[in-house]
Amino acid sequence: MIKIKRFCFDKNRLINLFESSKSFNSFNNSFIKFYKSKLPLFRLLLLRNIRFIYLNQKVIGYFWFEQIYEKTYSIKDFVVNNTANLSKTLEESTEKPSFFSKGLFIYECEDNTLNNIILTTLGFKKSGETLLMEKSIENKHEEEVTANITFSFMENNKDENLRCNLQNNIFEDDSRIPLTIDDIYYDQCQDYYLEKASVFIKSYDDHVGYGQIILNNDSYFIVNLGIVKEQRGKGFSTCLLNHLMNVCYDRGIKNIYIRVDEKNEIAKKLYLNNGFKFVNTVGIWEQ
Question: Which InterPro entries does the entry mention (predicted)?
Fold first, then answer.
């Protein structure tokens, strides 16, 4: 029988679980590493959002979650002791935990058979996949841009409205909730956010695109890269991508990653043509 509980007093087993965070899924944000970096008062607040997974009264895993919207939660760290015998036991377990009925839980995990079995058994369903791509940055790219193209770093407490409007234009979709100014401020407060790493591209007097570099799980990623719909097909994406890679070079970043929807052929072609290579598939799971 699988149970979700708030507490665990098996110190040795907890240490083993916490230490296996990255081996279970390299996209995990290690709870214990984050926990140790915070002051005691903040640690108490963190403990409210961790739960332990028990199978037949024995702790076998944990997950750390964060609320991102009303009744919507992102699982930041998730580990189950992934032995072959355990996965078989989980498959045979018929009673699913009721904890997840409180809302929508989203988790991103490297695609492999064992983790897929564990997540499926716990009631998660795969809602999509993205491809992880990587590029080594050995030299500064010679930017071939026309005189009308300029770049600028985003200035905090000044450009939030501009960024919000650009991203809502770039990523507009019926299924997507538009960003608000508060979302931009929230992003700037996160540990992954880097100063002087968010870039606007401008053509003449018009801002036509945006992209940024973040530090996530000790790896650097290009995220939110895009061009407004009215200006696509003019080469701005390549210009912005090359400029962001030069920002990486100037900061001493040796490897940069990017994620792309497996169905987005245009984006995949852009990154492949600019030296990125496929690394892995990342599943998006929901419960």
Answer: Acyl_CoA_acyltransferase (IPR016181), GNAT_dom (IPR000182), N-term/lysine_N-AcTrnsfr (IPR051556)
